Every structure is written in structure tokens, then in C-alpha cells.
Amino acid sequence: MAPITPARALLLLVCGLVCLLTASGALIGALFGGATAALVAAACAGAVGLLATLLVRRRALAHFAAAQREAGVRGYAEGIAHGVLLHVAAYEAAVFPQTGPTGVTPEERAARRTVAYRMAALEEVPRLVREAAADALAVLDEADRTRAEEALAQLASVVRQQYARP
């Protein structure tokens, strides 16, 4: 059995409505004029129903496609914003390693810093997230632990608020 997608559900609904209109036209024609009138009324009602549902179906499919594109763009931007948060947090772990001052080599710290700055500078990153990431990176460069924790919490809050589901 084929999966029920919005387009398939709409197609099934449209077919059902056209069949219902055709049957209704046949019944009304039979009540008022006999067999010939029933045939003509069924054909007319079916044709009108088919034409109307084709027009409605085309608009609905265009709406489905637009909604799918919008969801893709939103999901991509949300993923990029979460990636920025992840890389800034990785840079924080390199600045303040849990294993002590010798736990991270200077090369690893520089590499994490470079990746965090590059991710924060991407065009796809929303402005509010980019600003919060820039603040967090500036504080991390100064190696102030309390301000860095606050800045990273602010970045996480901005990312969460930017993409909160209503």
C-alpha cells in the first residue's frame, strides 16, 4: 500500500467528491426526468465536479510545495544555528579544559577557534544568533570564565527562542 501523503490524500478526496457529484446528478436527473435526464445530469455534474476539483487540487498542491520549501529553509537555518552553538561550546571546552591547562594543545584550541568563527560568520546564520555568537567568541578570546558562561547561556537562549515551536 502506498503511503498517505498530503497529495495522495487530496487525490483520494477529489475522486470521492467527483463520484459523489456524479451519483447525485444521476439521482436528481432520475427523479425529475427519467433515464435520459439522469444520464445527462450525471455527466454534467461529474464534468463540473471534475473541473472544479482539478482547479482546487492545483492550488492545494502549490500550497503543499510552498509549505515544504519553507519547512526545508527553516530546518536548514535551525540546523546552522545549532551548529554555531555546538562549535562555540567546543571552543569553550578548549579554552577552559576540564583536564587542566595542559589538557588541550594550542593547535587544537586554535583549530576550534577557527571553526567556531567560520560557523558564526556564515550568511545563513540569523542576525540575532550571529550577534550572540560574536559576543560569546569575544568573551572566550578574553578567557573570562564567568562572562563566558553567561555569554554561552545567552547564545543558547537566542538559538532556542529563534526556533521555538508555537
Characteristics:
166 residues, 5 helices, 0% strand, mainly alpha, 83% helix
Architecture overview:
With 166 residues, the chain is mainly alpha-helical. Helix content is 83%, strand content 0%. It contains five helices and no strands. Helix 1 (6-33) packs antiparallel against helix 2 (35-95), helix 2 (35-95) packs antiparallel against helix 3 and helix 2 (35-95) runs antiparallel to helix 5. It is rod-shaped, with a radius of gyration of 30 Å. The mean pLDDT is 87.
Tell me the helix content: over 70%
- Secondary structure category: mainly alpha
Report the count of strand segments.
0
Estimate what percentage of residues fall within beta strands.
under 5%
Overall pLDDT, averaged?
Answer: 87
Number of helices: 5
Instruction: Note the main sheet.
Output: none
- SSE ordering: HHHHH
How far is it from the N-terminal to the C-terminal residue, by CA? 34 Å
**Would you identify the regions where 5 or more consecutive residues have pLDDT less than 50?**
none
- Structural Rg: 30 Å
Task: Note the overall shape.
Answer: rod-shaped
List the helices and strands and how they pair.
Elements: H1 6-33, H2 35-95, H3 106-120, H4 127-142, H5 145-162
Short description:
The protein has 166 residues and is an all-alpha fold.
